[in-house]
Design brief:
alpha+beta; 76 residues; 2 helices; two-stranded antiparallel sheet; two-stranded antiparallel ribbon
Amino acid sequence: MSTVFLNGEYMPMSEARISPMDRGFLFGDGIYEVVPSYDGKLVGFGPHMDRMQEAWTHCRFSTASITPGGAKSPGS
């Protein structure tokens, strides 16, 4: 069984549902950002978060899910 993160919670993939009125579904809204790591250390994490915040705000997404501690890992 695979686990997915949707609408602020982890769930089995078989239970994940997206509303046909979801803006990301209708218009493809989304943000793609990458943070490289070398020897287990993140490189450029601060600028990454700045870019993420700017893009998030530009797309008018809620910032609650990207603030530190906003998302919980599976099983927590």
